[in-house]
């Protein structure tokens, strides 16, 4: 299994990461999720993401390892951006490769659900009304709890 975790300010290329995993081993399915800064009801003009990189990288690596073991993956790539991001900017990429589509889809969802609650990232929204830190959502906690059998 191949695990690749990157945290940084630079944007990422979905195509580049896809090309790095397609055709590995018994890869019959590649599933990718890209999260981006949305223009929601808060009318955010920017989203600032912060973390302590060594800790966040270790947490993401551990989540990827759990996914590999529990969903029989041949590869996981997680890219998470930090810094000040504008509307529609890419934030996170989760890309998984597996022999079968079902496990690839489940693994990608598992990684995102657990990442949202376990990875130590902090978000601040800035707009015409000022700035505010984004608090954890109950819906994210509920989504993560459904994977407790995997953890």
TrEMBL record:
Keyword tags: Molybdenum cofactor biosynthesis
Gene3D superfamilies documented for this protein: Molybdopterin biosynthesis MoaE subunit
Alphabetical list of InterPro entries matching this protein: MoaE_sf (IPR036563), Mopterin_biosynth_MoaE (IPR003448)
Pathway: Cofactor biosynthesis; molybdopterin biosynthesis
Enzyme's top EC category: transferase
UniProt keyword annotation of Iron present: no
Reactions mediated catalytically: 2 [molybdopterin-synthase sulfur-carrier protein]-C-terminal-Gly-aminoethanethioate + cyclic pyranopterin phosphate + H2O = molybdopterin + 2 [molybdopterin-synthase sulfur-carrier protein]-C-terminal Gly-Gly + 2 H(+)
Top-level taxonomic group: Bacteria
Signal peptide: none
GO MF, any single term: molybdopterin synthase activity
Gene Ontology biological process terms from the UniProt entry: Mo-molybdopterin cofactor biosynthetic process
A Pfam family that the UniProt record links to this protein: MoaE
The EC number(s) this enzyme carries: 2.8.1.12
Subunit structure: Heterotetramer of 2 MoaD subunits and 2 MoaE subunits. Also stable as homodimer. The enzyme changes between these two forms during catalysis.
Family: Belongs to the MoaE family.
Protein name per its UniProtKB record: Molybdopterin synthase catalytic subunit
Encoding gene, per UniProt annotation: moaE
């Amino acid at each position: 299994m191949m695990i690749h975790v990157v945290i940084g300010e630079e944007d990422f290329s979905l195509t580049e990461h896809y090309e790095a995993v397609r055709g590995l081993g018994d890869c019959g399915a590649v599933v990718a999720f890209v999260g981006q800064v949305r223009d929601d009801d808060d009318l955010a003009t920017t989203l600032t993401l912060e973390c302590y990189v060594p800790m966040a990288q270790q947490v993401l690596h551990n989540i990827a390892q759990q996914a590999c073991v529990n969903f029989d993956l041949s590869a996981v790539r997680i890219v998470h951006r930090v810094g000040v991001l504008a509307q529609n900017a890419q934030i996170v990429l989760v890309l998984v490769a597996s022999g079968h589509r079902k496990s690839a889809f489940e693994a990608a969802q598992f990684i995102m659900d657990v990442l949202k609650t376990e990875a130590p990232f902090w978000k601040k929204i800035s707009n015409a009304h000022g700035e505010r830190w984004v608090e954890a959502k109950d819906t994210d906690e509920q989504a993560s709890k459904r994977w407790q059998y995997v953890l």
